[in-house]
Amino acid sequence: MSSSNISPVTEDEIPARGQWGRKIEYFLSMVGFTVGLGNLWRFPYICLRNGGGPGLGFIIYPEALGQLPGQNIWSALFFVMLLIVGLDSQFGFVEVVIVACTDNFHWLRSRRVKFVIVVCFANFLCGMIMTTEGGIYIFQVIDWYIAAFIPAVFGIIECIVFGWIYGIDRFSRDVKLMLGRGIPIFFRICICFITPSILLAVLVYSITAYQPPTYGSYQYPDAAVGFGICVSVFPLISIIVCAFIVVLNMPGDTYKQKITAAFRPSSKWKPAIKEIQSDYYENGTVKQMRFFEKVKLNLIGEKNKLKE
């Protein structure tokens, strides 16, 4: 077709130029193009391909950060953040073990520094397995079972112990002795009702939606599944053993009396300051009450508080 046969376009035939409906649309569009829509579209595919677990922190996020301007800086900051989060978590985990051991075995208190070094070195040796070529498979199976069940179980137990067995009102008085104010009603409701209900729902869902562990296309054998189940049950053994020892040492002629006594807060648990010990428990005994009285006490507390 020759250029002479092409008719010129008049102004009436030119379509009207599009307009932004709102300023926020223009702003969001600019942000999207700045980051790069191509990288954003690729991100869900990477998530689907690598899944969660270790792939989220060591594959997906580094891949996304590698597409940003100044990717070296962002990647370095990201791994520094992971290191700091890991150290912060280890402080809490290791301190629990250290305090529990030193409280039960007093001879360790004079050797606390050496004991801390031994515990940390033992954890380091256990963690070295994860750095081997097949370590990611071991990590995946442990993370598959530990992270899904144990935190919910421990959280439910803690809420029951502090909220109902020891009593949230007693716990609130302990907090008031240390901080000068008790636990607000909102947190009382969370500890006694909301948090254990949510954790129970998460635990039930984790059990009903359970599937054998996988890593990419790799299917774990039955021996690895059995190992993971043993790992998930192992932290509960210490609770069962300690509970059995406590019940066995409780006063009572029958096991029912021993169990009932074990579920009662000890009247020996009181502040070290003698001036306020008499007000901590009335007449030095632990009051027994009905369920609804316990609910009312947990929500609003006692009218007669400790002396200021």
UniProtKB/TrEMBL annotation:
<dbReference type="InterPro" id="IPR000175">
    <property type="entry name" value="Na/ntran_symport"/>
</dbReference>
<keyword id="KW-0479">Metal-binding</keyword>
<dbReference type="GO" id="GO:0005283">
    <property type="term" value="F:amino acid:sodium symporter activity"/>
</dbReference>
<comment type="similarity">
    <text>Belongs to the sodium:neurotransmitter symporter (SNF) (TC 2.A.22) family.</text>
</comment>
<keyword id="KW-0813">Transport</keyword>
<dbReference type="InterPro" id="IPR037272">
    <property type="entry name" value="SNS_sf"/>
</dbReference>
<dbReference type="GO" id="GO:0005886">
    <property type="term" value="C:plasma membrane"/>
</dbReference>
<dbReference type="GO" id="GO:0089718">
    <property type="term" value="P:amino acid import across plasma membrane"/>
</dbReference>
<feature type="transmembrane region" description="Helical">
    <location>
        <begin position="24"/>
        <end position="41"/>
    </location>
</feature>
<feature type="transmembrane region" description="Helical">
    <location>
        <begin position="185"/>
        <end position="205"/>
    </location>
</feature>
<keyword id="KW-1133">Transmembrane helix</keyword>
<feature type="transmembrane region" description="Helical">
    <location>
        <begin position="225"/>
        <end position="248"/>
    </location>
</feature>
<dbReference type="Pfam" id="PF00209">
    <property type="entry name" value="SNF"/>
</dbReference>
<feature type="transmembrane region" description="Helical">
    <location>
        <begin position="113"/>
        <end position="138"/>
    </location>
</feature>
<dbReference type="GO" id="GO:0046872">
    <property type="term" value="F:metal ion binding"/>
</dbReference>
<feature type="transmembrane region" description="Helical">
    <location>
        <begin position="144"/>
        <end position="165"/>
    </location>
</feature>
<keyword id="KW-0915">Sodium</keyword>
<keyword id="KW-0325">Glycoprotein</keyword>
<protein>
    <submittedName>
        <fullName>SLC6A7</fullName>
    </submittedName>
</protein>
<keyword id="KW-0472">Membrane</keyword>
<feature type="binding site">
    <location>
        <position position="88"/>
    </location>
    <ligand>
        <name>Na(+)</name>
    </ligand>
</feature>
<feature type="binding site">
    <location>
        <position position="89"/>
    </location>
    <ligand>
        <name>Na(+)</name>
    </ligand>
</feature>
<keyword id="KW-0812">Transmembrane</keyword>
<feature type="transmembrane region" description="Helical">
    <location>
        <begin position="73"/>
        <end position="101"/>
    </location>
</feature>
